[in-house]
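User: I'm preparing a small set of examples for a lab meeting where we compare how different chains pack in three dimensions. I only have the primary sequence for this one, and I'd like the structure in token form so I can line it up with the others. Please keep the answer compact; I'll paste it straight into my notes.
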Amino acid sequence: MAQDRDDLDMVTLYQSLGVDAEMEADIIHGLLGANDISSVIVRPGEFPNLGFEVQVSKADLETAKRLIEEAQASGPEAAAEAEAASEE
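Assistant: Understood. Below is the structure token output for the 88-residue chain.
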């Protein structure tokens, strides 16, 4: 039973302090949601030096990484198509 709880622990999938960090976190969160993977965006709030994070359960980490790699390999055209499909 303890192993099951460990799989539910949230782990950081993405973290950035960059200028585009918020936008990238939102895109990753949307991609994961479109593929039925729950994620949480951790925003810096009053401390912008903490940056943005996207967290997923430990059990979903490998699948989430694979989805991001596939999306990056597909390029911006595939991302635009996925965005349009999610709006329908």
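A couple of notes for your slides: The chain has a mean pLDDT of 86. The chain has one domain: 2-65.

User: Perfect, thanks.
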